[in-house]
Specification:
The complex is a heterodimer of chains A (about 300) and B (about 425).
Chain A lengths: L4 H45 L2 E2 L7 E2 L3 H8 L1 H33 L5 H13 L2 H11 L6 H8 L11 H29 L3 H9 L4 H29 L3 H6 L1 E2 L2 E2 L4 H11 L3 H29 L4
Antiparallel strand pairs in A: 1-2, 3-4
Helix pairs in contact in A: 3-7, 3-9, 3-11, 4-7, 7-9, 9-12, 11-12
Chain B lengths: L20 H12 L4 H4 L10 E7 L5 H14 L3 E7 L2 H13 L6 E5 L3 H6 L3 E2 L17 H5 L2 E2 L2 E2 L1 E7 L1 E6 H7 L10 H11 L7 E3 L9 H7 L19 H14 L6 H4 L4 H5 L5 E7 L3 H6 L4 E4 L9 E2 L1 E8 L5 H12 L1 H9 L4 E2 L5 H7 L6 H6 L3 E2 L9 H14 L8 H15 L1
The chains are: A mainly alpha (about 300), B alpha/beta (about 425).
Chain lengths: ~300, ~425
């Protein structure tokens, strides 16, 4: 018995490693099973369905590339694409710059600092549909408080959510209001990570506050800025709930975005196959932009 | 519009809109044909075992009445438990489509007549022919045209629940303040327009009329009254401009928006006339459906109702709501029992007494009228005499979406009114070719 002791120990240690591996697989399996069923299989199915005509009720019929061909001549798709970018571009730029400015302000020693941080973060915790409902009322052309205030000043306010230009403005405002708090927190964390010494050293050399901001804060925050801009671009290409709640009139929408258009084609017009092909185009757009951002980061993102 | 003129007593009258021989032949055929035995043979009869079935509905205002119906059903079938699944109207069709596709739909659910052909042709419904006849429901108790709303290619797919017509609600206080006589059955389009102008007071934020942005409670009625139709007989082509009269009616309707006599789509974006502005007391008149009567009655405001003003002919849209059984139901026998009960006199009486809907069961109109004491709701019942079923969306609902969108561009002043009919026609034709 004793003679077998040594080999047994080594067998034990191998099997221990193997069992550790098994445990690893076991522990990630809930995540992986969920990922496979709800993501991979759905992704594959959606790819196949994007080449079909399907109204959800009757079996899908294969129709080759005609969905994708149709996208290029579909003027409503063009409108949705335009709206999406008209919202995304100002949203990403303003969101990053305002959040950075606020973060720097809230990082300094001002009174009620924590209170302000909470106030700016609260909108992030609010349900988007609730947010949109309240803002819809604020922008109401006839009975809303915004136009009420404008009327006091002798200005006839527009139908904010009805005209494309003002509706884009309104949606960007709401996106900023509800999203800046998140970026703010991430920026604050980034600011805390910048060593104090840099500021002290530069102060000794006579650098002004603005120079410190430009030459220390901004460069050292670029990894954070990069992360936030990737998230913001993806998020703003996927705007749906705000335009669903705020800019619909009866059965049509004054400001359809790409994701709204996917929903409208698939569930309201009974063209699920076509809707899925639009979703694939959106996926490719998002992948493209994210890839581009990762390529460009080499030029401006500084890791310490 | 499809020219099935309907009469609640069950006649098909030759109509001013013109009767389609093919449609009549189809209806007659449907009545004479015996139930398709092969289609219903697959459904095993309910054997009395304990089951739970789901009932899909969209109107929360009707929940109490539906619960009473379910309680009454429990007395007849103590072993069948019915669970209400309420989905608001705005999400109902999305949810239903997805649930049918995903194999998780309601056992029994509400279906409006417009969607019946869509679901029946897709094989999503079980025929209910078996619930009629000996020991079941009697077809003679329902207006034949209401029954036919759920008849697809000669097979009955739903038990009738209620029907709805359109009439003119008005706010008596606004009329009294202006010293204007209330609307009555002598009104025509000119009178309607004239009073709408008188009662509009921009400074006070008061509108003479509130016109809905959708067709059923607004422009479709006037298109019918002008003897117009949206599509040709074969449902292959839009003829809003070609046929002239439909276009004329739409232009007449649009002019109310352009002249500010009704809240425009920009205001209705957050303040729909039927839900907000008319009950809010800033709109004097509102063409609206019988399904709104109970809500307005219970507001305790000074609201009454008159027939819709008439055009060349009297006409209103008539729609129906039926109970259908899902073909994927795990308890089809029990589901059929429930659908049968809902079409029967007891359930229909509860429906009428609760005021939530105008029962399709003939002779029960009074139960509904009694619940609306003080309101001249009889006009809705009378309107069934000249009600017209809107054109079948057999070709799919997509063209109706396009139609509504294009009409609304006219309301917003984005499409010039003189080219509006042609623009609508072109857009709808494009959608028809696409589907």
């Amino acid at each position: 018995m004793r003679a077998h002791a040594a080999p047994e120990t080594s067998v034990h240690s191998t099997s221990h490693r193997a069992s550790q591996g098994r445990w690893g697989y076991l522990l990630i399996s809930p995540m992986m099973i969920g990922f496979s069923i709800f993501f991979l299989i759905a992704l594959g199915a959606s790819f196949v369905l994007s080449f079909t005509r399907w109204d959800l009720l009757n079996p899908p019929v294969f129709n080759g590339l005609s969905n994708y061909r149709k996208i290029f001549t579909d003027s409503t798709f063009g409108v949705a694409l335009f709206n999406t970018f008209a919202i995304a571009i100002p949203h990403v730029i303003l969101r990053i710059s305002i959040a950075l400015g606020l973060a720097v302000a809230l990082n300094s020693k001002i009174a009620f600092r924590t209170f302000y941080r909470v106030v700016f973060f609260l909108p992030v915790l609010t349900m988007p549909v609730a947010t949109a409902t309240i803002w819809k009322w604020i922008f109401d052309p006839k009975y809303g408080p915004l136009n009420g205030v404008l009327a006091q000043a002798g200005i006839a306010g527009p139908s904010w959510l009805f005209n494309q230009g003002t509706a884009i403005f309104a949606v960007v405002i709401v996106l900023l209001w509800s999203g800046i708090g998140y970026d703010l927190i991430i920026f604050l964390a980034g600011l805390q990570a910048i060593p104090r010494d840099y500021y002290e050293a530069s102060a000794l050399d006579g650098a002004s506050g603005w120079q410190q901001f430009r030459d220390i804060t901004v460069p050292l925050l670029t990894p954070t800025t990069f992360f936030l801009s990737v998230i913001a671009v993806i998020g703003s290409l996927q705007v749906f709930d705000l335009v669903y709640v705020m800019t619909r009139v009866d059965t049509s929408n004054r400001l359809p975005t790409l994701v709204y258009y996917i929903y409208e084609r698939g569930f309201e017009a009974g063209q699920m196959g076509y809707a899925i092909s639009v979703a694939w185009v959106l996926l490719i757009l998002i992948l493209g932009f994210t890839f581009l951002q990762f390529r460009l980061q080499r030029r401006w993102v500084h890791y310490q | 519009m499809v020219s099935r003129k309907i009469n609640r007593r069950g006649f098909v009258q030759s109509s001013a809109v013109g009767v389609s021989a093919a449609m009549l032949a189809k209806s007659a055929l449907a009545q004479d044909a015996t139930p398709d035995a092969s289609a219903v043979a697959d459904v095993p009869a309910y054997n009395g075992e304990e089951v739970t079935i789901t009932y899909g509905v969209w109107d929360s205002a009707q929940q109490a009445g539906i619960e009473q119906q379910i309680a009454a059903f429990k007395e007849v079938q103590p072993n069948i438990t019915v669970e209400i699944q309420l989905t608001p109207w705005s999400d109902y069709w999305t949810k239903l489509q997805t649930a049918v596709a995903g194999g998780e739909a309601f056992d029994v659910f509400w279906l409006n007549s417009a969607n019946c052909p869509v679901y029946a042709s897709a094989g999503a419904l079980i025929p209910v022919d078996s619930v009629f006849g000996e020991g079941g429901l009697d077809k003679a108790n329902y207006p034949k045209q209401i029954l036919d709303l759920y008849n697809f290619e000669g097979v009955q797919y739903g038990t009738p629940r209620e029907y709805d017509t359109i009439a003119l609600f008005y706010n008596k206080d606004i009329f009294d303040a202006a010293g204007e006589a209330y609307p009555d059955d002598t009104w025509d389009w000119d009178k309607f327009r004239e009073v709408a102008e008188k009662l509009t007071d921009e400074g006070a934020g008061q509108y003479g009329v509130g016109l809905n942005l959708g067709g059923q409670e607004n422009y479709t009625n006037f298109v019918l009254q002008n003897e117009g139709r949206y599509l040709n007989e074969e449902l292959t082509e839009c003829i809003v401009a070609k046929d002239v009269v439909a276009g004329e009616a739409l232009q007449w309707n649009t002019q109310f928006f352009l002249d500010g006599l009704t809240p425009g789509p920009d205001i209705q974006q957050s303040n729909p006339v039927s839900d907000m502005l008319f009950p809010g007391g800033v709109v004097a008149m509102l063409p609206g459906g019988s399904f709104r009567a109970k809500t307005y009655h219970d507001l305790g405001m000074n609201i009454d109702v008159a027939p819709l003003p008439q055009g060349k002919v009297r006409a209103t849209v008539i729609h129906g709501l039926g109970n259908v059984v899902w073909s994927g139901s795990k308890n089809p026998g029990a589901a059929l029992e429930f659908a049968k009960f809902l079409g029967g006199e007891d359930a229909e009486r509860i429906l009428g007494e609760s005021g939530i809907g105008l029962p399709a069961y003939m002779g029960l109109e009074d139960t509904w009228l009694t619940s609306l004491e003080g309101m001249n709701a009889q006009v809705f019942v009378d309107a069934a005499e000249y009600g017209v079923i809107p054109q079948d969306p057999v070709v799919g609902p997509a063209w109706q979406g396009t139609l509504g969108e294009e009409v609304n561009k006219g309301f917003a002043g984005e499409t010039p009114i003189d080219v509006l009919p042609q623009t609508i026609e072109d857009a709808v034709n494009a959608t028809l070719q696409d589907s």
